[in-house]
Design goal:
Distance between the termini: 12 Å
Strand content: 5-15%
Structural class: alpha/beta
Bound molecules: pyridoxal-5'-phosphate
Strand order of the largest sheet: 1-9-8-5-4-2-3
């Protein structure tokens, strides 16, 4: 039977709402305008931003860089990931979490997820650890902290480095401590869909001086001006040495100024996101057609994404049809994520479907609903109304 595009007449709203959007205010714009009259790059805003990230998270060191992917790359290099190594990560993430291993010539190994939290399952990480394993890249999926204590114990027992891909996690606390101050290294992304943004940007946070020095080198060509690190005697004040092979992954002062201003709003962003998540959770709690992501008590979560998981047994339509029905209501969603090893590039490397069944099943059932600071209460109610309308209309057996 042909189902109508819009179930039951008119859409719940007339204008489209998207799954994420940045929030820029006059203070942000002024911060950028001001810095334009000063240094555009390599100026004082970089250190100011790094100090601010340290203050806000409790991490000892921060190295900001051009984006979250660059952050993962330099963190992997600082961890010593190299050809022949294996790096364990989750498939339910953006491709960058695994690509960083490939950049270093290492092999990504995919561990399955916990069925309820959707984060990487420490038991699967343990089962996949071999003598080739060098690092674990754990993603705080949707902003909920990964099981850091269990992962850290395992990593440190086996001499592995725990890199936390914290692209979603800024603002979240794990057992009372801000994420960014816990894992061996934590990476952030400041892309516009993330909780705070500077257009493109990233950071690596760490408590270890040794990683910090390496991160600085890999961010900027492997070049140092520190005489204690040099091989040769400086032959003048201009002298510097390239002592390793790094990239140019610098952030500009323009971006840093914007991010410093954005970070002032993080408590406000965080509070609003929590409020919206609570409203969604309460609205969906009694519905058998959908499932709510489990929240672990250890994580005081600032959520970057809100995942609606469909209970397909209780629906007469699949995820794609549900997604399209939401779009017909002018609620434009997204799906996070396609399992990384489904991509042709990974297929070409020899990865086959079936290696992480829980992750694959999750992918068939999820939709990311709109979640961002500037959503109005009416927007939130419209999304809820659209979900309930579709879930009722396409209830299994009706
Ligand atoms: C956004 C994101 C990245 C990459 O960050 P960019 O700043 O876009 O390079 C990496 N991992 C996860 C989980 C992300 O969501």
């Amino acid at each position: 039977m042909e189902k109508p595009a819009i179930c039951g007449g008119i859409p719940v709203r007339n204008t489209q709402i998207f799954y994420g959007h940045q929030y820029i205010d006059d203070a942000d714009i002024q911060a950028v305008v001001d810095v334009m009259r000063q240094d555009l790059t390599c100026g004082p805003k970089i250190k100011e931003l790094e100090d601010k990230l340290c203050r806000m998270t409790g991490a000892k060191y921060a190295v900001v860089c051009s984006n979250g992917t660059a952050a993962l790359h330099i963190a992997s290099l600082a961890a010593g990931v190299k050809e022949g190594d294996e790096v364990i990560t989750t498939p339910i993430t953006f491709a960058a979490s695994a690509n960083c291993a490939l950049y270093c010539g290492a092999k990504p190994v995919f561990a399955d997820i916990n069925e309820e939290t959707y984060n990487i399952d420490p038991a699967c990480v343990k089962a996949l650890t071999t003598e080739k394993t060098k690092a674990v890249v754990a993603v705080d999926y949707t902003g909920q902290s990964a099981e850091l204590d269990e992962l850290l114990d395992h990593c440190h027992q086996h001499g592995l480095v725990l890199i936390e891909d914290g692209a979603h996690v800024i603002g979240t606390r794990y057992k009372g401590r801000y994420n960014g101050s816990i894992a061996d290294m934590t990476t952030f992304s400041f892309h516009p869909v993330k909780t705070v943004t500077c257009g493109e940007g990233g950071a690596v946070l760490t408590n270890k001086e040794d990683y910090y020095q390496k991160l600085l080198l890999y961010r900027a060509h492997g070049i140092t001006r520190d005489p204690s690190l040099m091989k040769h005697e400086p032959d003048g004040p201009w002298y510097y040495e390239q002592i390793d092979l790094g990239m140019n992954y610098r952030l500009t002062d323009i971006q840093a100024a914007l991010l410093i201003s954005q970070l002032d709003k993080l408590p406000m962003f965080s509070a609003r996101r929590k409020e919206i998540v609570k409203t969604y959770n309460e609205a969906f709690a009694g519905m058998e057609q959908v499932r709510i992501q489990k929240e672990i008590p250890e994580s005081d979560t600032t959520r970057h994404l809100y995942i609606l998981r469909l209970n397909l047994e209780k629906l007469s339509i699949n995820r794609r049809e549900f997604f399209e029905a939401l779009a017909a209501e002018n609620v434009c969603c997204n799906v996070h994520y396609i399992p990384t090893y489904y991509f042709p590039y990974y297929e070409k490397l020899g990865y086959k479907r079936g290696i992480c069944p829980k992750a694959e099943r999750l992918y068939e059932e999820i939709i990311s609903l709109p979640l961002y600071y500037a959503m109005t209460d009416q927007d939130v109610q419209d999304v809820i109304c659209a979900v309930k309308k579709i879930a009722e209309y396409y209830k299994a057996g009706t």
